[in-house]
Amino acid sequence: MWDFCSHSLDTARLRGATYGDVRVMHQRQRVLTTKNGRVGTLGQSESLGLGIRVVAHGAWGFASTDNLTRDGVAACAAQAVAIAKASALAKRESVQLAPEGSYIDSWQGPCLKDPFEIPVETQLSLLLAVDAEMGRAKGVTLTETDMQFRKIDSWFASSDGSRIHQRRFVSGCGIVAMSFQGDAIQKRSYPNSFGGQYILGGYELIEAMELLKHAPRVAEESVVLHSAAQCPEKTGTLILGGSQLGLQIHESVGHPIELDRVLGQEANFAGTSFLTLDKLHHLQYASPIVNVVADARAEHGPGLGTFAYDDEGVPAQRIDVIKDGEFHGYLSSRETAHLVGLPRSGGTMRCESWNRLPMIRMTNVSILPGQWQLDNLIADTDDAILMDTNRSWSIDDRRYQFQFSTEIGWEIKGGKKGRMLKNPSYSGITTEFWNSCDAICNADEWVLWGTPNCGKGQPMQVMGTGHGASPARFRNVKIGMAFAKQ
Amino acid sequence: MTRPTPKHAPSLRPESDLRRIAASVLRLGKLLGVRETEVQIDETVDALTRFANNAIHQHVAEQGLVVSVRTVVDGRTARVTTNRVDEDSLRVAIENSASLAAQRPKDPHLLPLLGKQKYRSVRRFHPATVALSAESRARAVKSACQLAEKRGQVAAGIFSSGQNQCLLANSRGLSAAYRQTHATFSITMQQGSAASWAKGNAGDYRQFDPAKLAVIASEKVLRAQDPVELEPGRYTVILEPAAVLDLVGFLFYDFAATAVADKRSCFSGRVGKSLLGKNITITDDVYHPDQLGTPFDGEGVPRRRVTLVDAGTVKNLVYARQSAKQAKVQPTGHGFALPNEYGEAPMNLVVGGGDTPVDEMIVSTDRGLLVTRFWYIREVDPYEKVMTGMTRDGLFLVERGKITKAARNFRFNQSVLEMLRNVESLGPARRAAGEESFEMVVPPMKVSSFQFSEVTKF
Fold first, then answer.
1. Do B134 and A267 touch (CB under 8 A)?
2. Domain ranges in chain B?
3. Is A4 in contact with A26 (CB distance < 8 Å)?
């Protein structure tokens, strides 16, 4: 692979590129699903190719190819340079990259059990058993399960001299039960909705999730929800479960801090951000107990945003995003770092595949644990609603106003968890919401959740991000607007 | 504007190359003792010029071919996909597919592969789009950026063009091939804190004019200045086609027979009932001149034109072969590639239009809102089809028949079914492009009592 990397970079240089980086990626994937006791999707795929990004005439060009021959990669490099020269027809300033060292390295992410070595028969047997278990509950009308595994090898080389090989395994699984009664559909998922839980790791995730153990509860709750009370419409105290708080972080912290959004580079599609440059170190983003980091290092845990180097060859870092409630840092790249006075990139450039351009993406954007045990937090709360497991999420294109609904909720009355509530939802304005946070649960409750489906960019790229979170309490939150009748 | 395609720009392989690869897969399948083999080959050649802050900041090209093999072994099936097309890799793909299939339980509902079919010819491959080069896209972008600069505005967007082809064949003699071109120009104009948007998408890029779209966005952002904050509540809305598309497009999977059988469709228990307004007719029609897409489905069934909603009544669903057999009807040619759990879906919706242009809708409105487009739409209630989302890039207050001012963006929580019962008038249907749904053919609509629940800061 290094020969292809070198040959494409040499060709780009000869054609006039002043900078180049190249990624050869080999991705393997296995997807298994079941529905109502039968196998749904059963497939494997692999994709191997090369993408090269160059600067020529001070502008960017990128081309990719699956033709991994010397002629094929040379033609691809020549195309990238020709594209860069075309880009220069409509440039304002020449590309400026923050300095970065060159690295020769090889790294492999955590994986205790290679999921591709586990027979498909074994994996399907588990899913079908879980599916059948959920199907036993009276009133359940649809059961679904899934497992997904990826093995990604990437070879990165740059004209700065870096040569970095990384190997990562990604594993995920989830189960869903749905119940249709009268004029309503209720749903419960485990360990999270929209695909379940994902980590950087192997089959050990599947074993740890104990899907079979949770199947009866998931199924039963989907039915019982029909007879639960409707979540009221009011302004009050809200306690969010960890997975929902993870998504709240993703949407109302992770995306606003992407520097490409802030600088208007995503204005046409993903949107911009309320976090304009004047707010750095000046905005009270959250209450003083809130600390959020963007941490791609292995020490943070096996998240979907964990790596050794990003896709422009910058080592993984930990960035303080919110420190004691104050806005402290953006997600940056080599091109954008100098615009916020950073001496180097924060190392957050990532690409979905060999045929996509690296762009600023979340790594593991996590809230640091607080002091509370969940039981004590509930005991300390007189009147609140506890909401868990996301059902819908939406936020405006500058990341101010959001609305989330969850699959399930419970009343908290007099320090005790009470009756179940259906159709819970809450909404608010990002900074007002985060400034109302007055309690965060401790490390015992903290989970590094994986979000496998973050879409951004044109052409669209889907990326996995990590979000460590534990349950937390928020005051004076608008509750119930999604189902409010007007 | 077009110039000769530069020598470094790749193009699609001749169809004969794809036929050769398919023949290799089928031959190898036979040699390996696989009873039934299906092969689908997809090739893409795409390029996209992206701009922001009145300059190109990303500019990409991709080329790739994937071969997807499905084997059927003793009532079991599985799929393996690879982009390595040498004979050894194809052999491994077949072996892996057969191995996966052997490890699953038998599927009593699995049908034998489909035999040879006849397809209606569609011509959607436009040499003018193929000839669009990186340089010609960059020049069009430069013109849009110059317009923005001249007016003190900031432009961001894309100009993309591409070609793709696919070939589906199987060991029972089925063979289907299709190729098309496509192009998109999308532009956001920003001025102060206001933003506007316009977008065109077609198989032949000459069906839209980037310069005109830039002017539309530029003029709209002038009107979007100094938005007032309005009280949330129910409003009459005039929805431009992109806004209609991105909301109504969310119904597409609800029309799947499998979704109805699974009781997760908003049409479960409602087929045959008058559910929407009498002025609403929805078909799925891949042959409509404004549509793109293959005239066959994932198993090779020829696509049929299907009337889904006729004058407000849900008349028909779409069927893959398996769901059709269970329902004792003919498949409609909307199945996904097997194996899958979703069944089928209509991907080429056409919502019937009327003869009231947007200007007349405005004139006839005493108080309402003109919506350019919606954003971040998600499902809140699957059975009542309540969707939430935001307005974006141009929300305007209409008073006494005129646009009087811009308004701050609203969040909505609105049932799409209720909305389609409250349509007061429809404009001419056309191919629309949004960001949340597939491109489809829809009209602008004037809708009463649309529910906005909260307002944002801009």
1. no
2. 15-207, 226-458
3. no
* Residue A283 Cα distances to A279, A330, B80, angstroms: 5, 13, 51
Q: Token match 């093995």: residue?
A: A151
Task: Walk along chain B (458 residues) in steps of 10 and give the mean pLDDT of each run.
Answer: 54 96 98 97 98 98 97 96 97 98 96 97 95 96 98 98 98 98 98 97 97 98 97 98 97 98 98 97 97 97 98 98 98 98 97 98 98 98 98 98 98 98 98 94 98 96
Q: Calculate ∠ Cα A1-B21-B97, nearest 5°.
A: 75
Q: Which residue has the tokens 């489905």?
A: B297
State the CATH class of domain B15-207: alpha beta
Residue ranges and CATH numbers for the domains of chain A are 2-227 (3.30.2290.10), 230-483 (no CATH)
CA pair distance B71, B112, nearest whole angstrom: 11
Residue from the list A41, A142, A400 with its beta carbon closest to the beta carbon of B339: A41
Residue in this structure with the two tokens 């300095």, named with its chain if needed: A99
**Structure-token match 């450039």, residue found:** A349
Q: Which of B319, B340, B322, B332 is nearest to B77 (CA)?
A: B340
Question: What is the enclosing helix (H) or strand (E) of B139?
Answer: helix B134-150
Restricting to A residues 182-211, those with a Cβ less than 8 Å away from any Cβ of B are 183-185
Question: Structure pTM?
Answer: 0.97
A212–B contact, CB cutoff 8 A? no
ipTM of the complex: 0.96
Instruction: Write the burial class of residue A129 (CB in 10 Å: 0-12 exposed, 13-18 middle, 19+ buried).
Output: middle
Residues of B in contact with A61 (CB under 8 A): 59, 134
CB pairs < 8 Å spanning A and B: 287
Separation CA A27–CA A120 (nearest Å): 18
Do the chains contact at B62 and A63, CB–CB below 8 Å? Answer: yes
Residue of chain A nearest B143, judged by CA positions: A90
